[in-house]
Specification:
heterodimer, A: alpha+beta, four-stranded mixed beta sheet, 6 helices, rod-shaped, B: mainly alpha, 5 helices
Chain lengths: 175, 206
Amino acid sequence: MADATQTAGLVLPNAIATKADLVNVLRNLETVLDAFVENSVRHDEGVDFASRADVSSNLAQLVKANQLEVSVETLKSLKVWLTHLKDHAPVVRFTFANDPNPEFLGSIVEWLRSSSGQFVLIRFGIQPSIAAGCLMYTPRRRYDFSLRKNILSRGQELMNYIRAAAEAPQQESKA
Amino acid sequence: MSGLWFVFIVASLLSAAGAFLWLAMGQRMGGGKRQGDDFVDAANQEVERIFSDEFREELRNRGRLHFEKIISDNAMFLKQDLQLTASDLNKYMQEQIKKVLKEEFAKYEESIDSAKQIAIEAISKTQTALDEQRQLLQQQVQEEVKKEKARLMAIFEENMSQVVNHYLLDAIGNEIDLTDQLDYIYRHFEDNKAAIVEDIRSGAGG
């Protein structure tokens, strides 16, 4: 069983890509933890009733990926870890041309986490004018990987193509 | 016949004049006044006898005829002379007029040629000036067109890439699926991997 307090021993699934995902998982975890506490109290009081909290897929993936034995302590440790991540994990902001699907975000996060060795979280916004690619904002700087910038930065090259295309018929006519 | 009459008349006149002279000389050389008067009377009588009215009339007629003939002849000669003179004068006038007209026409033609030459020179100069002006104007227009073309080309080049790019961006903005962009994004990630990793690590725990 992995120790939830040791980040080195825990794995954050790529499905939990954004800080919102993390907050949702944390909230879901708190709900589940509250249900566990309530059920424990009921069990101690002899109440034959147990409430079942809904477990989100991300939380389920988190537990499964870390092969955790679900208990109050484990969940509390996991909550501490997630809270720590919420407050201290590096957040990289992205701007995409259109709404990304979870698989796409998972791919991005996987690369960031595997490259940096950090539990990187992302936040994203939508800006259709960039056409494709993305804008990336790390804690220190901004990277423009958009197709818009790529095309605009190659304006002179485009004009050379246009000029060459315009001069070609003239040269043919002269010949 | 008329010549014979003329000789006869002249002889009569000479004889009468001789008689008159003879009487006059005789009176001057010693005759008395009386004798002189007689001679004069005799001479007058003789003259009257010779130069009777008929004779005088005849002489008058002859003279008139002769005078008429002379006049007629002279008139004819005068007429001929006049005709010749008129003809000559006419010819002379024609020649003079021709000459004057010819000279005037020559002068006129010369003036016309001169004016024509001046006009041609003026037109030529004007044409040359017009050609120069036209050439200058053409050069100026060409320079202006060239400048305008260069300006428009500069504006075109300045804006064309933006127009095309905006068109491309607008056209493909929503057409590229994000999943298809992963390779493109990964390529940029890999190109900037070191910087990105450094940024993330330096930002972690902040």
